[in-house]
## 1
Amino acid sequence: MLAGKPTGIEFGGIATISGAEFLFTEFMDQLVHSWDLAIATDQDATLEPALAEAAHTLFQSGGLFGPGGIGEAIEVPETASSQDRLLAAVGRNPGHPIA
């Protein structure tokens, strides 16, 4: 605590996380679930490449929801797009999105 103020955010009884971790969690949640919703409603599911790259980079760095923290990662080729690498890292199959 700094001067009587909490330095972390209680996250669903799982952990106390920093403000930056909380924002990253919300960012990932919105980005990945926007893809989920687009697939489910038969809309364009293309993510902004810079956002997908940023999310993938942050996700790979670990933390509360780092690799293995959400779902079993799916292997994709090294040449895969940033969107496909992000989706595969969080257990989505970019090649068979409904499966």
Note: The radius of gyration is 15 Å.
## 2
Amino acid sequence: MQELEENRRDCNNDNTRKEMADKIKCLDFAITELALYLDTHPDDEKALCLHNRYCKEVKDLKDKYQKVYGPLTINYPCNKWRWIEEPWPWERGNY
């Protein structure tokens, strides 16, 4: 638990939990849209480069988020099972 608190303090104040989650959603959306575009425009180097950049950016952001706040989904394991350590979304009142 102490490690979790240290990670939260180390996280940049500009990147609150909600801001990080919103950025992840935006990047995931952009990645999906670019993938659909690339299905019909496979030779568009600019779109491919942007897709790759967003994929790296979202991976890095998800890793950072999970180190501070715990797993985003069951598909992102952490060093221990932390689903039950914090209040459920409906218990926090900000869902």
Note: The longest helix spans residues 45-69.
## 3
Amino acid sequence: MPCASRQIARALGGSPVHIALDKKTLYHAAATLASGQVLALVEAATQLLISLGMKCNEAARARHGLGLWQEEVIRL
């Protein structure tokens, strides 16, 4: 991994690792599956909060209180 990409990974709170070229497809598949699941869970939680009668902005604030922070999801 080039030096700049290691610095970017660390700046974003990640831990850079070397992935062999022939394994990168598997890495990207795993990342795609994981990110989609996290976003789906956050959206499901939001919809449940809205079904309680909350407005969208109230549900977003409540989501933060539950630890479902958008910034954390994006970092994943």
Note: Residues 20-75 form one domain.
## 4
Amino acid sequence: MKKLIILPALFLLVITGCQKNGSPAAAKETIGNAVITGFSPDKCACCWGWNVEIDGKTYRIDKFPDDVDFDVTNISFPMTVSITWSESAGGCKGTIIDVQHISKL
């Protein structure tokens, strides 16, 4: 009889304790200078893309915004750029960045 009471009580406790607290916070945008140092053609989840160094850390860009002011297929490395970016929310967090704006310096 105790088990019949404990199980529903435990179930109700778990259900009421699981609630969403709103949407996740938006990714923080960072504005600064960076250097595009090369391109990595490796075909793995977090490997492919342009290597970019920002504040001594290397990230990858897997796509550029539509308003880019240089030819992304013909970059002369290294290229110094001004960049507005945020960390990617996907599985490659810390490696791939999302670029909102980028322009050649």
Note: The chain has one domain: 30-104.
